[in-house]
Design a protein that fits this description.
The protein has seven helices and twelve strands. It has about 280 residues and is an alpha+beta fold. The strands form three sheets. The protein has a seven-stranded antiparallel beta sheet with strand order 1-2-5-6-7-10-9. Strands 4-3-8 form a three-stranded antiparallel beta sheet, with no helix packed on it. It has a two-stranded antiparallel sheet with strand order 11-12.
Length: about 280
């Protein structure tokens, strides 16, 4: 028993010592910047190849380029929620209520820059991003990750969320390779409608080399659901299946019909989806 307790303390020490300073398991490939807004002092969106990750240069599996308007990116980004942990250790932490992964200002920035970057992305390129903001303690916090389109699903690999970073070298590391995860599991994804976790990093092995969360999003279903939000707050569920509250913006009947028509005209939904949803909207009128 004493040996087991000693092992736990050893693992805890390793976890706390590593913090947000793990070295990347590989070197990322070259990057491309596609717009003036895409590279700013405290935030960026880039195209970057990662040969040693799924979808890197060797496989070229991504369905890029991909065109989604900045307006249509907003409900996709707003649908993503996370749960922070009250402690850094996976096995001794308490999950906080689900909250939006991105602030309104971050949603506005990402909706524009992701739309531009995906339109220029090649099949071997990730769309990576990094967001910095001052934390409550005055220490810079970073959110980093990457996106790609595979089939009909948008994939978000969220490596770090509000990760406190005080060392310039660590900030440079995460800026150079945004897919490098924080070694401490400080947050979980709260899985919402039309979303599915692809990778679950909650394993003992993750103590020594965690993999970032990967979320697959059926973006067409999210856009279709945004046409006529349900009455009352939407529900998302955490990894344990517990419902968590989240909000959704309500549209007028005129706005909903206009949005529905635009989605059909852009080929984001089928004619059948359009007819069914239009009838539902008119029946409610």
């Amino acid at each position: 028993m004493s040996q087991f307790v000693l092992l736990l303390f050893l693992l805890a020490g390793i976890w706390l010592h590593q913090g947000c300073s793990a070295a990347p398991p590989h070197e990322p490939g070259p990057t491309r910047i596609v717009c003036g807004l895409c590279e700013e002092t405290d935030r960026f969106v880039r195209l970057q190849s990662h040969p040693n990750r799924p979808g890197g240069e060797a496989s070229g599996r991504f369905a890029h380029p991909f065109r989604l308007s900045s307006e249509d990116w907003i409900p996709v980004l707003a649908s993503i929620q996370v749960q922070t942990r009250a402690a850094a250790l996976v096995f001794f932490s308490t999950k906080q209520p689900a909250a939006p992964a991105f602030s309104p200002a971050e949603v506005e920035y990402l909706s524009v820059t992701l739309s531009k970057a995906f339109a220029e992305a090649g099949p071997e390129e990730w769309v990576v991003f990094g967001l910095s903001q001052p934390g409550a303690s005055g220490i810079t916090e970073m959110t980093t990750g990457g996106w790609f389109l595979e089939g009909s699903n948008l994939h978000l690999v969220l490596a770090n969320h509000r990760c406190p970073v005080s060392m310039p070298g660590v900030r440079d590391l995460l800026a150079r390779d945004p897919l490098t995860p924080n070694t401490g599991r400080a947050f979980d994804l709260a899985v919402g409608p039309h979303q599915q976790v692809v990778k679950d990093a909650e394993t003992l092995a993750s103590l020594f080399g965690p993999t970032p969360w990967e979320l697959a999003i059926d973006y067409r279903a999210v856009l279709l659901a945004s046409v006529a939000p349900s009455e009352g707050p939407a529900k998302v569920r955490d990894e344990g299946g517990e419902p968590q509250a989240g909000g959704s913006k309500k549209l007028s009947i005129e706005e909903s019909l206009a949005l529905l028509k635009r989605l059909r005209d852009q080929g984001l939904i089928t004619d059948a989806d359009y007819d069914v949803k239009k009838k539902q909207l008119l029946d409610r009128f």
